[in-house]
Design brief:
Layout (H helix, E strand, L loop, with lengths): L1 E9 L5 H12 L6 E5 L2 E3 L11 E3 L4 H12 L3 E5 L18 H19 L5 E2 L8 H9 L3 E3 L6 H4 L3 H16 L1 H4 L9 E2 L4 E3 L2 E2 L7 H13 L3 E7 L5 H16 L4 E2 L2 H6 L1
Parallel strand pairs: 1-2, 1-11, 1-12, 2-5, 6-7, 7-9, 10-11
Antiparallel strand pairs: 3-4, 8-9
This protein binds zinc ion.
């Protein structure tokens, strides 16, 4: 079974000490592989740091950039593109808008910027707030990126053919059959191989809803059927109890030699 860890919202305001507090213990293990969804030009207003929209490039956090580059060289992390600035426009999230030209340019610029800054290659997109418009999906495909996220599947966005209908039914049935274990969430533990891109659903780390036993139950169910589980967290919400729960859970998985920690690109390239 493949197990992926995705940490979101790494950006200019991620303090190195906070990042280390959450991940040092894990990154020191031999099998550590961490997928980081990075915002290249974070909007500080989006995260309630300023009152006005103010974009800050990742490069202004020099010590974090140096540390991330070291981790990339050691093959401990993979960088995923998490939007451009994560800015919401009224009730619309950054990639829920429908201006395709602007979305195309944003993805191209953001990808080029991060690849150059961190000296790495990026092949995967993580939509802010897990929301994509039809035009955003087209812009992602035209930039030749795969998607590591769960977002509502609609034929209006993805197009309709028999293969996609089959994906829809399989995802629907898996979610319904495992309703209790998933507590009503939609989730499908296999890669969806669309004609122009691939996508893997993710499962949010929600300690208030899923305790240690719930997480293990879900993991072993997916292990039994040879699926993939991508667990997503936000470094800024991992404090004390939640961090301890995550640590205990990950340590339990590491002990199991049939569970392999993976980078997203490895899973998509298989
Ligand atoms: Zn985010």
């Amino acid at each position: 079974m493949d197990f992926l860890l995705r940490d979101d919202d790494i950006c200019f305001f991620t303090k190195l000490e906070d990042f280390k507090k959450v991940w040092s213990w894990f990154l020191e293990t031999d099998c550590a592989k961490l997928n980081l969804a990075v915002i290249p030009f974070v909007d500080l207003k989006e995260f309630n740091i300023t009152e006005e929209v103010r974009l800050k490039p990742l490069e202004e956090n020099k010590e974090l950039v140096i540390y991330l580059k070291k981790l990339i060289k050691k093959k401990k992390i993979e960088i995923l593109l998490h939007g451009y600035s994560h800015t919401s426009f009224g009730k619309k999230f950054e990639f829920s808008i429908t201006d395709k030209e602007s979305l195309l340019k944003k993805i191209k610029k953001a990808k080029f910027y991060l690849e150059n800054l961190l000296e790495t290659k990026i092949s995967i997109f993580v939509p802010p707030h897990n929301r994509l418009s039809k035009e955003a999906l087209e812009a992602i495909k035209e930039n030749k990126l795969d998607i590591l996220a769960s977002f509502p599947m609609s034929f209006f966005k993805i197009g309709f053919n028999l293969k996609y209908f089959y994906f829809f039914i399989k995802r629907f049935l898996f979610s319904k059959i495992n309703y209790n274990c998933l507590k009503g969430f939609y989730f499908y533990p296999y890669i969806l191989n669309f004609d122009s891109h691939k996508q893997l659903d993710c499962f949010n780390f929600l300690p208030n809803l899923f305790d240690f036993q719930d997480l293990l139950r879900l993991t072993y169910k997916i292990k039994k059927i040879g699926g993939s589980l991508c667990l997503t967290v936000h470094w800024w919400e991992l404090k004390e109890m939640n961090l301890e729960l995550l640590k205990t859970f990950i340590c339990k998985l590491i002990e199991d030699n049939q569970i392999m920690l993976k980078f997203a690109s490895e899973v998509f390239d298989d």
